């Protein structure tokens, strides 16, 4: 049987279309705009960090200049003082307990919404979704009255409990798709093997939804760490201040020492920046999984 030879042009690889001048110009404009936006976002942060290495006289003589010479005394004074570390400790306690409460309660509520059929399941999910549109600024006055009646003002618990409540809507919205994506066959096999509902929850659901759990935990911790309005209303005792409140107090107390205030502010930003830089891939991966689910 004769085989016809293919024409020579059929064996050639298709040529890739080269970008036209219009598309190249468009890409250039996008890169320029992105670079301008990045510079505008990073410029204030860079000014604060560099300003901490200057003296007050240098800032007065040249507000936008560079340190000449570089002085590390401001950062050393802040790090060797007890105020900064006390504020970091308070923020760490509030952030960790808030994250624990948000993850545990959010995971259990998401499990009930995602895996079981009952009459008010849709209404419950809609209620948590509506919580995303209910900012803390709207509820701050009645919330303060409730916390005061419970005797939790000037305590870290008075900040932790409301933060857990306001963190649950986001947590449930993210975790429900993860739990719904778990195949029903896995749950049926676990029940055949004698696993209870709690056993299936701890042994199967928690490990399978770990990417989403890590994501909501990181978001809850960062939100708690950067929280300012709620601690401002609840905490009046400087010994219980969190880091954002401490920055404001320090700025008012040392308002004439601009360089020291800049050093304190830059050190206060550093933990959140490091934490987010380490776990940013986890956040993106978890949110992507929630969208796919």
TrEMBL record:
The keyword Transmembrane helix applies. Its main location: membrane. Residues 88-279 form the ABC transmembrane type-1 domain. Keywords: Cell membrane, Membrane, Transmembrane, Transmembrane helix, Transport. Residues 1-23 are annotated as: Disordered. It is found in: Cell membrane. It is a multi-pass membrane protein. It comes from the Bacteria. GO terms for cellular component: plasma membrane. Gene3D superfamilies: MetI-like. The chain crosses the membrane at residues 28-50, 92-113, 125-147, 159-179, 200-222, 259-279. GO terms for biological process: transmembrane transport. Belongs to the binding-protein-dependent transport system permease family. This is Carbohydrate ABC transporter permease.
């Amino acid at each position: 049987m004769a085989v016809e030879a293919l024409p020579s042009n059929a064996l050639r690889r298709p040529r890739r279309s080269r970008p036209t001048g219009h598309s190249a110009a468009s890409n250039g404009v996008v890169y320029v705009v992105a670079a301008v936006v990045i510079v505008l976002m990073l410029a204030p942060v860079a000014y604060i960090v560099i300003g901490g290495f200057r003296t007050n006289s240098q800032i007065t003589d040249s507000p936008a200049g560079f340190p000449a010479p570089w002085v590390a005394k401001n950062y050393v004074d802040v790090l060797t003082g007890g105020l900064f570390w006390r504020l970091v400790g308070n923020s760490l306690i509030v952030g960790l307990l808030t994250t624990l409460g948000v993850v545990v309660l959010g995971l259990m509520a998401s499990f009930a919404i995602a895996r079981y059929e009952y009459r008010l399941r849709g209404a419950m999910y809609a209620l948590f979704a509506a919580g995303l549109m209910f900012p803390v600024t709207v509820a701050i006055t009645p919330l303060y009255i409730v916390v005061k009646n419970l005797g939790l003002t000037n305590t870290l618990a008075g900040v932790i409990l409301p933060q857990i409540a306001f963190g649950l809507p986001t947590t449930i919205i993210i975790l429900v798709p993860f739990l719904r994506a778990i195949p029903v066959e896995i749950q049926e096999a676990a029940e055949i093997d004698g696993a209870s509902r709690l056993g299936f929850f701890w042994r199967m659901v928690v490990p399978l939804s770990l990417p989403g759990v890590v994501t909501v935990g990181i978001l809850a911790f960062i939100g708690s760490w950067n929280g300012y309005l709620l601690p401002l209303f609840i905490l009046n005792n400087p010994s219980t201040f969190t880091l954002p409140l401490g920055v404001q107090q320090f700025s008012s107390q040392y308002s004439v020492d601009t360089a020291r205030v800049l050093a304190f502010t830059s050190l206060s930003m550093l933990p959140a920046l490091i934490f987010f830089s380490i776990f940013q891939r986890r956040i993106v991966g978890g949110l992507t999984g929630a969208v796919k689910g």
